[in-house]
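call fold(seq) -> tokens
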Amino acid sequence: MPEVHANGINIHYEIHGSGEPLVLIAGLGYDHWMWHKMIPGLAEHFQVIAFDNRGLGETDKPEGPYTA
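ret:
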């Protein structure tokens, strides 16, 4: 799985399709999975980039507390 190291943590991301980039940012408490039904259609027109927020999914889970 692709990851990028930023601000001291590894952030998991996925890229689908090609074209103009479109970054999908999940809401509070969700990882990139929340987009699984939308990504295939969007990837027909865009390079879709979805990632797991800090502390969720496959992104590192450093000590909290977290704030919104």
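Strands lie at 3-6, 9-16, 21-24, 47-51.
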